[in-house]
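The step that takes the researchers longest sounds almost clerical: writing a folded protein down as plain text. The outcome of that step, for a single protein, is printed below.
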Amino acid sequence: MLRLSPSRSRERPSADSEPPPTESPDAVTALLRSPPVVQRLVQELYAGLLERRPDPSGAESLQGVLARGARLADVLHDMTGSPEFLHRILPQASRAAGDGPEALRHLYHDATDAAPYGNPLRIWSGPPVAFLHLEKTAGNSVLDVLLDRFHPLQINRDPGRTRPPHLYLPCPEDAAPALIWGHYDLPTLRRLGGDRFIFTFLREPAERILSLYHFWRSQDPAEMPPDERHAGVRAAQALGLADFLRSRDPEVRDHIDNLYARRLTGCYATGAARDPLMADPEGVLADARAALAGLDFVGVTEAFDAGLAALAARLGLPPVREAPRVNVLADMQADPGTPFRPLAQEPVTPVIRAALDQLTRLDARLYAIARAAALQS
C-alpha cells in the first residue's frame, strides 16, 4: 500500500476574498471519490509515471488511498519515490532529457510539491552522508555541489534543519535518507544518521562571528518570517557590535561563544542551570577535539577550493572545476530583490578584538588543528 506523507497546510483565503462557488462541497468530494473517477485516475497515474498498466494489487491499494481522500500531490510524491520509479523510470528520463535537466527538475518539484533540493535526474549510490553545516563557513557553497548528486527523495526533509540545535531538536525520519544536512550538532547527527560519512568545514572563528553578525544585521526585520527572528537575530539588529559580543543571553551565547566546541559536543547554555562550557572549558575542549578527530573529513573555508576538491575525491564525485560562491552578503545586499540592506560595517576596535578573542578561545584551538591537517593533505 502506498505510504503517504502528512498533508501539507494550505493558505487560507482572507475574510475579504471572493466567496467560493455555491456548489455543494460534499457533492464535489463524492464525485472525486466515486469508483469510476478513482479508477480512471489510477490508470492515468500508472500510465504517466510508471508507463504501464496497473497491476491488480497495486490498483486496489491506490484506489483505496484515493477514495479515502489522499491529496494528489502526496500520491505523486510517494509514487515518484518508489523503487520502480527511481530505478527504472528515472534513468530512462535522465537519458531522454539530454541537455534539459532543469526542465525535468522543475517538473518534478511542481508535480510532487517536494522541497527544492536535489536533482531528480540523479540517484546517489555511494555511502550515506551527513554534512555538519556550521553557520557562515561557506556551507551553502558546499551544498551547491553536493545536493546535485542526490535525488530529492534521498535527502532529509526536516523543515527545521536551518534552525540552531540549541533551539530545535529534530525527530528521526521514518527511513534513513542518503544525505542528512543542516545546522545540527554532531551528537544529533550521529543519533539521526547512524553509521555514515560525516564531514564539516570550519572558518577562522572570529571572522565567522563577524560574518554572522553582519549577515543578521543586514536583514530587513519586516521581510523576515517571525520564526526566523530568534534571539541572535534580534540582538544583531538592535545592538552595536561591541554590545552584541557582550550579550549574556544564553541563546545568543550559544551562537557566538565557541560555537565549534558547542556543536561538536552538544554543550549549550540555553536551558542549562549552568553553562557546561563555562563550568569545564578544558573538558569540553578535550571532548570537542576527540569529536573533531572522529569526523571523516574536515575542510577549512580559508582553503575552500582545495577542501572542496579533496571532499569530492573522498566521496567519488567528479572534480570541481570552479568552486561556487553562494550566499555572499555583498552580492545579496546589491540585489534589490533580497531582504538584505546595504549597511556600513563597524571597524574592529581593540575592545571588539579582545571580545572576539574571548569568544573564540576554544574554537581557535580547534580551528588550528583543522587548518594544519588541511594544509598537510
